[in-house]
Amino acid sequence: MATLSFNPTNFRDQTTSIPYKPISNFTSFSQPTKISCTSTSHTISNSSTLKTSSNCKRRRFLVNSVSESSIEEAETIEDVIDDDPTAEMSFLDPGTEPENITEWELDFCSRPILDIRGKKIWELVVCDNSLSLQYTKYFPNNVINSITLKNAIVTICDELGVPLPEKIRFFRSQLQTIITKACKELGIKPIPSKRCLSLLLWLEERFETIYTRHPGFQKGAKPLMVLDNPFPTELPENLFGDRWAFVQLPYSAVASSRAKPLAAWMNGLEVCSIEADTARACLLLSVGISTRYIYATYKKTPETTQETEAWEATKKACGGLHFLAIQEDLDSDDCVGFWLLLDLPPPPV
């Protein structure tokens, strides 16, 4: 079987209209999908099965080909950016139809950088999931409120010539009030979710290539807002499956006689990741920003512990990439629901 993985390579900052688009698209799928899931298994508690595989390949982001003159222009601009880590960004891929960018990913938080007053600078970072839209702007800490954010969202649309988005995803629960208020005043649906994958990877890249080179950077400064990792709770009854299994890629499959309604309910959640908890002998499902469910349990034995650890190791080796599928039967090649998931570490800022 072909295997997939994810390799987070560097995102390059752009301040001019140079075609630039990753090939990966981190979106959920709920339509039936043909896959092959063949491997041996053994029974765990409640007719559950566990399967693992360690095969994976690396993928890379690729940039679109451009003309020789464009490359020379890009290299010149990148040299300027490299010399000025204080530069802000306002970029829209000219090959993208503005009206097609309907969902944004947004972060509005302090950075480990001090201004001339000795206070931490805040930064607004906005992108879409393909990085066709990229925007950054610094703010002093005494203007942080929903009005500032609302005005900034309008400014982005005016500068880049894009319509207001239909949805904005954000991953910091501490800023939910500010972001929600700003979005609702503009008629935008705010979605608290850790599925801001392009944004999280971009923040990691900016920390390494921008923030650490800023003249006000404070080495060793702790993030002002850490991500929630709450204690897991019981799964709602309508999300239970009949059986589950680990299969290849790494990959988690759930079988249910109610596969279609189960997939519909799951599709209403912002499914982020699945984690194997060997200490509690269970699988944990992370959704939204700060919700974790005990998704399934199994009988704890040396064999099952070894296999769950192997699955987690494979997921880690694949850069956190894993899948969740809902099927009517574990032996079926059809999926009623299929989600591509990426378990990323918290951003360094």
TrEMBL record:
GO terms for molecular function: RNA binding. Residues 104-206 form the RNA-binding protein Tab2-like N-terminal domain. Signal peptide: none annotated. It holds the Pfam family Tab2-like_C. Residues 254-341 form the RNA-binding protein Tab2/Atab2 C-terminal domain. It comes from the Eukaryota. InterPro entries: Tab2-like, Tab2-like_C, Tab2-like_N. This is Uncharacterized protein. It comes from Chenopodium quinoa.
